[in-house]
Amino acid sequence: MNLTPERIAELEVNLKENGLIDSDDRIVEAERGDYWEKYLFTYSQIRGFYYFTEKSIVFVGGLLGSTSWSVKYKNIKDLKPATVGPFLPLAFKLFTYDEKKGKDISHKVAIVHKKQWMAYLEEKRRIGSMPQI
After folding, report:
1. pLDDT of 42
2. pLDDT attached to residue 38
3. Is the pLDDT of residue 130 over 60?
4. Cβ atoms of residues 15 and 58 within 8 Å
5. Separation of alpha carbons 46 and 29, rounded Å
6. From CA 6, how far away is CA 131, in angstroms rounded?
7. Residue 33's closest CA among 61, 64, 55?
8. CB 33 within 8 A of CB 91
9. In the chain, helix, strand, coil percent, each to 5?
10. Among 10, 86, 107, 116, which is most exposed with the fewest C-beta within 10 angstroms?
11. Which residues, listed in sequence order, are joined to residue 42 by a DSSP beta bridge?
Protein backbone atom coordinates (compact mmCIF):
# COMPACT_ATOMS: atom_id res chain seq x y z
CA MET A 1 0.00 0.00 0.00
CA ASN A 2 1.44 3.35 -1.01
CA LEU A 3 1.31 5.90 1.80
CA THR A 4 2.69 9.42 1.66
CA PRO A 5 5.29 10.42 4.26
CA GLU A 6 2.71 12.82 5.73
CA ARG A 7 0.13 10.02 6.10
CA ILE A 8 2.73 7.71 7.66
CA ALA A 9 3.67 10.42 10.21
CA GLU A 10 -0.02 10.95 11.02
CA LEU A 11 -0.60 7.21 11.49
CA GLU A 12 2.50 6.84 13.67
CA VAL A 13 1.30 9.63 16.00
CA ASN A 14 -2.13 7.97 16.26
CA LEU A 15 -0.68 4.50 16.94
CA LYS A 16 1.69 5.92 19.58
CA GLU A 17 -1.10 7.90 21.30
CA ASN A 18 -3.19 4.73 21.51
CA GLY A 19 -0.32 2.69 22.95
CA LEU A 20 -0.09 0.35 19.97
CA ILE A 21 3.56 1.10 19.14
CA ASP A 22 6.56 2.35 21.11
CA SER A 23 7.63 5.99 20.92
CA ASP A 24 10.72 5.10 18.86
CA ASP A 25 8.91 2.71 16.46
CA ARG A 26 8.25 3.49 12.78
CA ILE A 27 5.83 2.14 10.15
CA VAL A 28 7.59 0.18 7.41
CA GLU A 29 4.59 -1.18 5.45
CA ALA A 30 0.80 -1.12 5.53
CA GLU A 31 -1.73 -3.50 3.98
CA ARG A 32 -5.50 -3.88 3.96
CA GLY A 33 -6.76 -7.10 5.47
CA ASP A 34 -9.23 -8.85 7.71
CA TYR A 35 -8.98 -10.00 11.28
CA TRP A 36 -11.08 -13.01 12.20
CA GLU A 37 -12.06 -12.63 15.86
CA LYS A 38 -13.25 -15.72 17.66
CA TYR A 39 -16.64 -15.63 19.41
CA LEU A 40 -17.44 -18.87 21.25
CA PHE A 41 -17.51 -21.45 18.43
CA THR A 42 -17.41 -19.16 15.39
CA TYR A 43 -15.37 -16.32 13.89
CA SER A 44 -16.41 -12.77 13.04
CA GLN A 45 -14.74 -10.87 10.18
CA ILE A 46 -13.39 -7.39 10.94
CA ARG A 47 -12.01 -5.36 8.04
CA GLY A 48 -9.13 -3.01 8.64
CA PHE A 49 -5.45 -2.31 8.13
CA TYR A 50 -2.31 -4.13 9.16
CA TYR A 51 0.70 -1.95 9.91
CA PHE A 52 4.13 -3.54 9.91
CA THR A 53 6.54 -1.47 11.98
CA GLU A 54 10.19 -1.93 12.85
CA LYS A 55 9.17 -3.80 16.04
CA SER A 56 5.54 -4.94 15.71
CA ILE A 57 2.57 -5.99 13.63
CA VAL A 58 -0.48 -3.83 14.38
CA PHE A 59 -4.13 -4.27 13.36
CA VAL A 60 -6.64 -1.42 13.43
CA GLY A 61 -10.17 -2.07 12.17
CA GLY A 62 -13.85 -2.08 12.85
CA LEU A 63 -16.03 0.95 13.39
CA LEU A 64 -13.72 3.90 14.14
CA GLY A 65 -10.85 1.54 14.93
CA SER A 66 -12.84 -0.20 17.66
CA THR A 67 -10.82 -3.40 17.25
CA SER A 68 -7.07 -3.01 17.55
CA TRP A 69 -4.11 -5.01 18.74
CA SER A 70 -0.36 -5.11 18.36
CA VAL A 71 2.19 -7.87 18.74
CA LYS A 72 5.92 -7.35 19.03
CA TYR A 73 7.85 -9.57 16.64
CA LYS A 74 9.91 -10.93 19.55
CA ASN A 75 6.68 -12.25 21.16
CA ILE A 76 5.55 -14.27 18.12
CA LYS A 77 5.77 -17.94 19.05
CA ASP A 78 4.55 -19.54 15.81
CA LEU A 79 2.79 -18.96 12.47
CA LYS A 80 0.55 -21.54 10.82
CA PRO A 81 -1.56 -21.46 7.63
CA ALA A 82 -5.30 -21.25 8.31
CA THR A 83 -8.56 -21.21 6.40
CA VAL A 84 -11.34 -18.67 6.20
CA GLY A 85 -14.58 -20.54 6.52
CA PRO A 86 -14.27 -24.26 6.04
CA PHE A 87 -12.21 -24.32 2.82
CA LEU A 88 -10.56 -21.05 1.73
CA PRO A 89 -6.81 -21.05 2.56
CA LEU A 90 -6.55 -17.26 2.74
CA ALA A 91 -5.36 -16.74 6.31
CA PHE A 92 -2.74 -17.65 8.86
CA LYS A 93 -2.76 -17.93 12.62
CA LEU A 94 -0.28 -15.91 14.61
CA PHE A 95 0.46 -17.46 18.01
CA THR A 96 1.90 -15.05 20.56
CA TYR A 97 2.40 -14.17 24.18
CA ASP A 98 0.26 -11.20 25.25
CA GLU A 99 2.30 -9.11 27.69
CA LYS A 100 -0.76 -7.16 28.91
CA LYS A 101 -2.88 -10.26 29.63
CA GLY A 102 0.06 -12.42 30.69
CA LYS A 103 -1.00 -15.41 28.59
CA ASP A 104 -0.65 -17.09 25.19
CA ILE A 105 -3.20 -16.05 22.54
CA SER A 106 -3.70 -16.38 18.78
CA HIS A 107 -4.85 -14.05 16.01
CA LYS A 108 -6.33 -15.18 12.68
CA VAL A 109 -4.96 -12.87 9.97
CA ALA A 110 -6.35 -12.73 6.41
CA ILE A 111 -4.19 -10.60 4.14
CA VAL A 112 -3.22 -10.43 0.46
CA HIS A 113 0.12 -12.16 -0.27
CA LYS A 114 -0.27 -14.34 2.82
CA LYS A 115 2.88 -16.41 2.17
CA GLN A 116 5.08 -13.34 1.74
CA TRP A 117 3.80 -11.78 4.97
CA MET A 118 4.25 -15.07 6.85
CA ALA A 119 7.87 -15.23 5.62
CA TYR A 120 8.39 -11.58 6.63
CA LEU A 121 7.00 -12.21 10.13
CA GLU A 122 9.04 -15.41 10.50
CA GLU A 123 12.23 -13.50 9.64
CA LYS A 124 11.37 -10.68 12.07
CA ARG A 125 10.53 -13.22 14.76
CA ARG A 126 13.92 -14.91 14.38
CA ILE A 127 15.79 -11.59 14.45
CA GLY A 128 13.78 -10.41 17.48
CA SER A 129 14.48 -13.57 19.45
CA MET A 130 18.25 -13.47 18.88
CA PRO A 131 20.29 -12.55 21.96
CA GLN A 132 21.66 -9.01 21.87
CA ILE A 133 25.46 -8.73 21.90
Report:
1. 83
2. 85
3. no
4. yes
5. 20
6. 35
7. 61
8. no
9. 25, 50, 25
10. 86
11. 39
